[in-house]
Amino acid sequence: MAISVNQFPSLSWQTYLKGFRNYLKLERSLSENSVSAYLRDAQKLHQFLESDNKTVAPGSVTTKDLRAFLEHINEENMSTYSQARIVSGLRAFFRYLLAEEFISKDPTELLEGPRIGRKLPDTLDYPEIEKILEAIDLSTPEGTRNRAMIETLYSSGLRVSELVGLKIPNIYFDIGFLRVIGKGNKERLVPIGKEAMKFLKIYLEQVRVHLKVQPDSTSNVFLNRRGGKISRVLVFQIIKDLVARAGIRKTVSPHTFRHSFATHLIEGGADLRAVQEMLGHESITTTEIYTHLDRDYLKQVIREFHPRS
């Protein structure tokens, strides 16, 4: 028989959240960013219940309470995508409580989240990528590093977390592959192109060797000026500055290069399963989004080559 959290009124939400954190890290092997996002979702619910003078014990939460919470976040003009992500976080929290037998019934079981359409990600065409690369000042050590980073992002379709976490021993120049640690600490091998390898070698052999590397960053490929592991925030800022310098008006992030990598492969006729493997997607459904990105190109082909167009 399940033990209700109501039997432990002295236990705070923070106690359950601490257990939830350990569950996400140890049993589900999620990244620190994902763990933090799930915890924030559960904390948002707790704050709402307190502000609404509701009983705050997780075991007392009902589906009705959760629907009221969803109405609340909807009124805050939160995007449909963000609302759906919060619902996902709450489901994970209550399923954890159920699995640990803290509750006997999952209040999210009958909860319907907002319907979200499949959003096609922004991409860059190849001339735009060339403009960004040409905007880099290769006469500076940082410019050489930045060129190597962007070449690697676009050449191998890495996530920004995978880029900043890339280790020197995981670059196999002899066979043209990178060993990448992706979501959930899952490893995969991805090919890397000749241009990316060229600029990686230049950076490692002519720039990085002159940095005073911090002890905890000795194996990291990309470093900041102080010799520490480069941060995600800095990578975002570097790309933002380069895009402005290149005169491109699109909103571009490190992920845009990943989207562009996949889109250009699919448009070029690459096998969907191969792209799935390179991106590290668990489900091919996630990869299939890129098959919808070349609609304009297909329409152009019809207009140019079909006799009735």
3D architecture notes:
With 309 residues, the protein is mostly helical. Helix content is 52%, strand content 4%. It is built from 13 helices and 3 strands. It has helices spanning 13-27, 32-51, 63-75, 80-99, 126-134, 141-156, 160-164, 194-206, 232-245, 254-267, 272-279, 284-287, 295-305; strands spanning 171-172, 177-181, 187-191. The relative contact order is 0.09. Strands 1-2-3 form a 3-stranded antiparallel β-sheet. It is globular and about 60 Å long. α1 (13-27) runs antiparallel to α2 (32-51), α6 (141-156) runs antiparallel to α8 (194-206) and α6 packs across α10. The model is unreliable at 1-10 (pLDDT under 50). It has 2 domains: 5-99, Tyrosine recombinase, N-terminal domain (DNA polymerase, domain 1), CATH 1.10.150; 126-302, hpI Integrase, Chain A (Orthogonal Bundle), CATH 1.10.443.10.
Distance between the termini: 69 Å
CATH H level, superfamily name of the largest domain? Intergrase catalytic core
- The 3D shape can be described as globular
Count up the domains: 2
Main pleated sheet: 3 strands, antiparallel
Helix-strand category:
mainly alpha
Low-confidence stretches: 1-10
Query: Might you state the CATH topology name of the largest domain?
Result: hpI Integrase, Chain A
DSSP helical segment count: 13
Rounded to an integer in angstroms, the radius of gyration calculated over CA atoms is 23 Å
Which sequence of strands runs across the widest sheet? 1-2-3
- Strand segment count: 3
CATH class of the largest domain: Mainly Alpha
CATH architecture label of the largest domain: Orthogonal Bundle
What is the share of helical residues?
A: 40-55%
SSE string: HHHHHHHEEEHHHHHH
Fraction of residues in β-strands: under 5%
**Mean pLDDT metric:** 84
